[in-house]
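re: ur question from earlier - yeah i can do the single chain one, its not a big deal. heres the input i used so u can compare w yours
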Amino acid sequence: MAAERSGGGDAAKTIALLWRKPPEPKLGRKPKMSVDQIVTAAIAVADGEGLGAMSMARVAQELGVGTMSLYTHVPGKTELIDLMADGVLRERDLVAAGTWRDRIRHYADRTRAVYHAHPWMRDVSMVRPPLGPGLMDGEEFVLAALTDAGLEPKQVTVAHAAIEGFVHGAAASEVDDQQLEEATGESGDSWWRARQMFWDDYFDVERYPVMTSLWHARAYDAEGTLADSARRSFDYGLDKLLDGIEGGLR
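and the output i got, formated as tokens:
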């Protein structure tokens, strides 16, 4: 499916909703639901059925109310996407403890966990981010760790962008296999096994000498599942990124 994107709704209305400061309710009957209930239901639909299944009508069905009643709280699906993305980012529950590197690793692990718990986040482009507490708390957490590391102000913002790009990109890439397995019923490991004939009958050792040498050096030997390999790659990439940042302190 085509990716959804955050930041596409009415700016004033979306920001007010993200910070739970909607317009004062009109006099009359007490609302049947809250914005939090709508967001929770929307996340549940996306978790269970994918982001493509999430619509205002489907969320209303989940809540057992009429679709139009949702629009009195949330303008539409575009704004709801922002609320959902920021809502799951709030689940990270970041704790500032340990060295600056420990804190960045904690941030990375908690962010990665969010993507695995909510694979539909892979389908949300946050180039124009949801400016809510979930996102902003994470930004502040990383910036504080980098500042405490002793980086100059400009280095802090550049290092922050590099960390954000790596963590979100790597986490999103990891859940691709998870989504495909759920959609097709076939694991990544099974998919590769079914293509063993490529290596046996089609792979040209003279055309790809570096890959061949790595193969003979047993560099591709699997240690666990694809998920295990993805975790090792994530940890390795993050450690090398932090090594590079730390090198700028010397």
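The chain has one domain: 1-175. not sure if urs matches, ping me
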